[in-house]
Amino acid sequence: MELSHLILNNESEVRKNFNRLSNDKKVYVETYGCQMNFSDTEIVLSVLSKNGYNETSDIEESDVILLNTCSIRENAENRIYSRLGDLIKYKKRNPDLVIGILGCMAERLRKDLLQKKKIVDIIVGPDEYRKVPELIENSVEKGEKGIAVKLSRTETYDDITPLRREGITAWLSIMRGCDKFCSFCVVPFTRGRERSRSFINITEESKRLYDEGVRDIWLLGQNVNSYKYEEYDFADLLKNVAAAVPGMRVRYITSHPYDLSDKLLETMAEYDNICKYIHLPIQSGSDRILKLMNRLYSVKEYMRVMLKAREMMPGIGLSTDIISCFPGETDDEHKMTLDVIREIEYDSAFTFVYSPRENTKAFEMTDTLDEETKKQRLDEIITLQREISFKINSALTGSVMPVLVETLSKKSEDNFMGRTDCNKSVIIPRNFSSVDMSGNLINTGFIKAGELINVEITGANSATLFGNPVRKNETLSKS
Ligand code: 5AD
Ligand code: SF4
Question: Of all protein residues, whose CA lies closest to atom 4 belonging to ligand 2?
Answer without folding.
Answer: 222
